[in-house]
Amino acid sequence: MNTSRRSVIRGMAAIPLAAATSGLLMPSTAQAASDGFSLAMRLSPSQNHRYWGTAADTLRRRLPAADLVKDVLRQATRTGGSVGNWRDGPGTGVEPTGFDYGFSWDPDTKDPHGQLDGKTTQWYPQGISTSVDGYGGTVDGRKVIAVSWYGYENYEKRGARISFIDVTGDPQKPRYEHVLLVEPIQEEGSDTATFQPVIMHAGGVAWAGNFLYVANLPGRLAPFKQGGVSAFDLTRMIKVEGADKNKAFGYDYILPLHHVYENRGSGKLRHSQLSLDRTRPNEPHSLVVSEFLDNGERGRVVRWDLAPTGYLVDGLSEEDWLSKPYVQGAVAVGKDAYYAANDRGTQGPAASEAIGAFAPKAGQLWLHKGRSGDPKLHGTLAIGPEDLSYDADRLWSLAEHPDLRRVYRIQLRR
Fold it and tell me: Signal sequence: where (predicted)?
């Protein structure tokens, strides 16, 4: 399967008309043709609440605004370390094909929950994106990596967090900070606002200008059961103080939800992973969602075009195709695609808990020429591969298992 759609109104404004009572932004009637992977935009949890953007602004009237570079990164409290020996641990790991840079999580500084990032079983890293996605290079002169984590088991109710990592100063010891993802809440008629964690799997992240998009799996873990993608607004980041620090579980910074795109089509896509594609000449940048299926079938990959403002053009999918079984991350590069996949089809915490029972294998990198036919094996990745992000003939990826966690970059063989 490989289908595509050319929008008849490609140059339209980014934001469709809002539905009067539901808080949803729907595609216009002219664009609302049948589409199995259509997304609808939501700006608030219900008609009884203010828009999330408005609630965030209300929060910032009593809590300090925070700048990603000047506040979060220049005052970062954690420092990454060496990738070490790729053959460590019980698995059959090898150095990823084309490896040219990487780091491990801070081996000394505990997070607000008293856990080390490289060892914790309460948080699992999943998605990765960079300022190359967001702005074509740097943000305020800094090359920044964004990694998403989700809370697991007794930490599920603490939601999800983003690690912002500055790899510009000393790449061998990159500094980073965790930021909690939150839903700002303000009821209609109220002049005050609060916030709560966003309960989501955070399986992938794509940086698009001032928005950080995070993938939502449908079902119990998603803040909205339909599944889709949630956009967090980097221009509304907040520093937490006083009694609000407890609500943020000890984190210094929170990143507010701005809008979500929910599944509205018949395709029932699992929004497992997420990436950004800036590589198509004379075409809009786009969000690319890939699907993990635990039954061994090939997952679907779907593209939605973005307007220059960072919103989806219309919510109708532009293209879809099939990937590989057990894909954990996918990027579209020109006419091709690359996939990160597990060798055995194991994933997440279940796999890490079983590390003592078997030797997990290195991940696999697959190349899908023309995004049609069968992908071909293109190299190896770290044990427990997750999301991918493209960076000028290089790929960023990360490993999720405790004691085997790394963030790394590889050179592509084209």
Answer: 1-32
pLDDT value at position 45?
93
Which CATH number covers residue 178? Answer: 2.115.10
User: Which pair of structure tokens corresponds to residue 252?
Assistant: 């210094």
Q: Is residue 18 part of a domain?
A: no
Q: Of 365, 375, 280, which Cα lies nearest the Cα of 321? A: 375
Q: Find the domain containing 127 and state its range.
A: 36-411
Task: Give the total number of structural domains in the chain.
Answer: 1
Contacts of 264 (CB under 8 A, 6+ apart): 38, 39, 40, 226, 315
CB 196 within 8 A of CB 247: yes
Residues of the chain above pLDDT 70, percent:
86
Q: Per the domain annotation, does 7 fall within a domain? A: no
- Cα 350 to chain center, whole Å? 21
Q: Is the pLDDT of residue 29 over 60?
A: no
State how far the Cα of 350 lies from the Cα of 59, in Å rounded to an integer.
Answer: 38
Whether 47 shows a pLDDT value over 80: the answer reads yes
The pLDDT confidence band at residue 88, using thresholds 50, 70 and 90, is low
Q: Is residue 268 part of a domain?
A: yes
Q: Is the pLDDT of residue 229 over 90?
A: yes
113: left (phi > 0), else alpha (psi -120 to 50), else beta? alpha
Q: For residues 160 and 178, what is the distance between their CA atoms, to the nearest angstrom?
A: 10
- φ, ψ for residue 176, nearest 5 deg: -150, 165
Residue 21's pLDDT is: 33
In angstroms, the CA 15 to CA 42 distance is 11
How far apart are alpha carbons 176 and 158 in whole angstroms? 20
Residue 20 lies in a domain: no
